[in-house]
Amino acid sequence: MIEHVDPFLGSAATALPPPTGLAATWWWPKPQVGNTHPGAAHPFGMVSACAYSGAYPTGYGQYELNTEGVPPQLFDRLQATGFTHFQQSGTGAIRKYYNYFRVTPMVEPLDALGTAWELREERAEPGYYAATLASGIRAELTVGPKSAVHRYTFPAHKDARLVIDFSAGGLAIPYGATVPLRAHLEALAPGVAQAEIVVEGAPLAVHLEADVDGWQQLLWYDRRLMPGGTRLDFDRIRPTTLRPFGLMWRGDTEPGQVLELRFGFSLRGVDQARTNLITDLGATPAGSTSPCSTTTSFDARHAETSAQWRRDLSRIRIETPSSERQRIFSTALYHSLVKPCFAPDESPFWPTDGPFVFDLCTLWDMYRTQLPLITALFPERAAELAHALLYVCEEEGNLPIGYRMAKGTDRFSRQGSALAQTFLADLCQLGVPGVDWDWALVHMDTDLRRAYGEEFLLRGVVHPITHTLDLAFGYHCTAQVARHVGDVALAEQCDALARQWVNAFDPATGLLVDSSYYEGGRWNYSFRVLHDMQARIDLAGGDDAFVALLDSFFGYGAEPVRQVGERPGVAEMLAGYALNRFEGLNNEPDMEVPWAYHYVGRPDRTAEVVHAAVHAMFGLGRGGLPGNDDSGGLSSWYVWASLGLFPIAGQSLYLVNAPSFSQSRIRLGEEELAVETTGFVEPVAGGPVQYVQTVTFNGRPLEQSWLPARDLHRGGRLVVELGPSPSAWGTTSRPPSVSAPATPAVPSHPAVPRDPAG
Fold it and tell me: For position 641, what pLDDT does the model report?
């Protein structure tokens, strides 16, 4: 699988073939760019490393800040002023862009620091990035869980330099820079130094070592050298007083001379940073002050990280004759495993050891698709993440909506509420070991009564109205955990509050009431898969009325739309939102809605919408994504959708759909699930849709269109028979709802053809 991954995919403006059919009716309101980066990363690692241009939002690439439409260019070429550490993956405007400890190899004087050299001969694979600067210097980067290793190959030069800017951070966009509050830098020995900078409340420490035998080592401040200096200390830095500072080495280079630079990182001081470097790169050789072998550390770290990627990516194997589809899937799985960043024993904000996680920057996107994927493939990681979230709540007062390498849990509170409860409820219902559910229940319940939760308790409704749905579902999830630990009284209280979701809807329209909406409109949020879908459908007027609303939303019978261009105006955006249309995976608020058809016995419609999305909205190359990947939220949607399964987050069930691969093997913890097909025809964009005819699970007919997560996670064999026309499969049963438990399927009967258009 690893050999098919393209880390460049999604790193530039969307460049997909023009969609046809149903997909041509979907409207894209958000940035038409994946916002990924090709830098070296470790699976769920703390560290990444990549070429740095200062572009939005990862520091890599060519684009300005943009929140709508085609991204405007900041630069007319791929370029870099050096190589930085810690990058977001696929996010948008989160105002936290890292890119710390910029390393710049140079054959120019220090005054030229900040020069942008053209990037040439780029190469990337999981755990490795390389490029040649126009200056002729070749750079190679690899990382470990808490470390990074750089290797630079210089041309012949009489006065080459290797410069580290410890003050750098953020992006070259307005208000995008990160200014350290405090900084301490110390040269310990030739080629050895340590530093700690405090940025946005987070103390980030580094221990670094360079193989620069015979080179002069110097501190510098404001691009001026400090001969003989061994320390720089800044107790208080202001944006108005910041001047760049750092460390450099200078010396002669022979043609092809190689220099290696190694970083160990920690959020708990320089001693821990050195320990992390030793842990990631090997024990200190006898008689050496350096923790690593100077001749093998880069290659050894690269090999180990590559091996870990190979193991993790092999958790899912697919069969397809299409190398293009293999690459798209493999890269989607890769992007799903980059974030969040696991940093055990590294919390800078409380003294106890234990799980710590950051870069849950888009939990409002990740909770539907990416967190269920982590739970399925790596249950031990999911338990670690659960503990990390609970520690955040215990120490800082809230279960986070997003959490970064910075102080504060509530910076994303307008995006959503009670999202961690969804993830925790899934773990509890699955029986994932290692979580203290009494402890978890206390925080799940208390968290629901803070912020928006106070008004929800008083009035049964809160605006923005989507928070009403979030909180009601959060109470539903908390009730599941309460029952698990035997707190029946609390479960009943939560059940009553969970029923307040109905206050968010207008029975006259079957849609949500008037309110403000985050990154979407009323229609995008009106079809969320709730815990009581039967009552939701009844509120809309019944099955036929609900199907009619969904059909309108997905553009059945509609004309193709024109997408917005660069810097769209207010009138253009309002006209687009007035279409009341599916956002086509350009944005995530409605990403689960294609599966809402299952609840009205129309899995054929799900097959049609998912087919259009999988084959028209994802492609190859730098422009291969329809919108921001959002820390893997979008890529993990593709993984699930193409496998023919979709997790309903917080409800511990999977909905079944037509797979887009003839066979797949999914390693679910210690078990394996085989998804096989009969009657399969290799799908193509704009080609015919395949519909489920029958399903068997472990040899028994499955008439319903869903499976409990516990059953699926035990593994086995799911066989899906496909055909060119809709069938009766899944039409007579309904997935479970609170007010209407799962409808039993009637015995199988001959397929009743249904018009795919209506």
Answer: 98
Instruction: Identify which of 624, 546, 545, 617 has the alpha carbon closest to the alpha carbon of residue 588.
Output: 617
CA distances from 262 to 114, 146, 578, 597 (A): 22, 11, 53, 53
What tokens does 224 get?
């001026």
Residue carrying structure tokens 């420490």: 205
The kind and range of the H/E element at 386 are helix 379-396
Task: Confirm or reject CATH 3.30.450.90 for domain 39-69+77-282, answering yes or no.
Answer: no
Q: Mind listing the pLDDT tens digit for each residue in 485-523? A: 999 999 999 999 999 999 999 999 999 999 999 888 999
CA 237 to chain centre: 33
DSSP-derived pairing of the beta strands 671-678 and 716-723: parallel
**Maximal CA-CA distance, the chain:** 87
Q: How many CA atoms lie within 13 A of 50 on its CB side?
A: 33
- Which pLDDT does position 505 carry in this prediction? 98
Token pair recorded at residue 116: 């942008």
- The two beta strands, 245-253 and 157-165, are antiparallel
Identify residue 706 by its one-letter amino acid code: W
Q: Which residues contact 742 (CB under 8 A, 6 or more apart)?
A: 704, 706, 733, 734, 735, 736
Distance between CA atoms of residues 519 and 256, nearest Å: 51
The parts of the chain modelled with pLDDT lower than 70 are: 283-296, 409-410, 741-758
Tokens 């106890």, residue? 352
How confident is the model over 269-313, as pLDDT tens digits?
Answer: 999 999 999 999 985 433 344 544 444 699 999 999 999 999 999
Taken in order 447, 372, 369, 385, the sign of the CA dihedral is: positive
Contacts of 228 (CB under 8 A, 6+ apart): none
Burial of 686 (0-12, 13-18, 19+ CB in 10 A): middle
Q: Both tokens of residue 641?
A: 């959708």
Q: Measured between alpha carbons, how far is 264 from 210 in angstroms, rounded to an integer?
A: 12
Q: How far apart are CA 459 and CA 454, in angstroms?
A: 9
Contacts of 684 (CB under 8 A, 6+ apart): 615
Pull the structure tokens for residue 61. 């690439």
Q: DSSP per residue over 596-629, as a string?
A: GGGGGT-HHHHHHHHHHHHHHS--SSTT--SS--
Going by C-alpha positions, the residue among 719, 722, 720, 663 that lies closest to residue 691 is 722
Measured CA to CA, the distance from residue 44 to residue 373 in angstroms comes to: 13
Helix, strand, coil share (%) of the chain residues, nearest 5: 30, 25, 45
For residues 462 and 453, what is the distance between their CA atoms, to the nearest angstrom? Answer: 8
Residue boundaries of the structural domains of the chain: 39-69+77-282
φ, ψ (nearest 5 deg) of residue 297: -65, -40
Position 745 scores a pLDDT of 44
Residue 528 contacts residue 469 (beta carbons within 8 Å): yes
d(CA 396, CA 392): 6
Which helix (H) or strand (E) element contains residue 633? helix 633-643
- Whole-number Å distance between alpha carbons of 742 and 648: 14
Please, are residues 595 and 655 in contact by the beta-carbon 8 Å criterion? Answer: yes
Tokens 């219902």 correspond to what residue? 429
| pLDDT for 415 | 86
The DSSP element (H or E) to which 717 belongs, if any, is strand 716-723
| pLDDT of amino acid 743 | 52
**Gap between the Cα atoms of 471 and 641, Å rounded:** 27
Alpha-carbon distance of 105 to 111, in angstroms, equals: 13
Q: In the prediction, which pLDDT does 409 show?
A: 59
User: Degrees (nearest 5) of the Cα angle 35, 372, 678?
Assistant: 100
Token readout for 758 is 């209506």
Which residue is associated with the tokens 């939760």? 453
- Of 178, 155, 161, the C-alpha closest to 111 is 161
CA distance 539 to 516: 22
